Amino acid sequence: MVIMGIDPGFAITGYGIVKYEGNKFSPVNYGTVLTSTEEPFARRLLRLDREICAAIELYRPDAVAVEELFFNKNLKTAITAAHGRGIALTAAARCGIEVFEYTPLQVKQAVAGYGRADKLQVQQMVRAILNLEEIPKPDDAADALAVAICHGHSYRLSKLDYR
What we know:
Helices cover 49% and strands 23% of the residues. The two termini are 25 Å apart. It has one domain (2-159): Nucleotidyltransferase, domain 5 (2-Layer Sandwich). The chain has helices at residues 41-59, 75-94, 104-112, 119-129, 139-159, and strands at residues 2-7, 12-21, 24-34, 63-67, 98-102.
């Protein structure tokens, strides 16, 4: 199974593509989509849409996993990030890919085994799970890979028969 994880944002959206076979993850690609404050708002949204769709078309994931937003301080940041999240969800749906959503707590639990793990702990686990030499950079890409890993674990568990 090929899984695309997305860490949504507006200025920076992280994406990560992993292959999950036989309970083993391997990295395919990861990176970010950047939008410039110089561009009008609508053009920034369009850039996000085009680049997410291009990645979906290139890697043909079986599923797209998107992190839910968690903000407790800056409402303006939350609203702009929510625009990016909406674009990610819409782009995947338009491409006919099934979309799954996970909270930051679920992602941390699935990747680090602890829902209150800090960012560095999650990134170190992403590096270890994907057998990478270094922690993926930038942080947004590492976070997107964590979301993809979370989906792999969650999907596997949902397919287990407990009868």
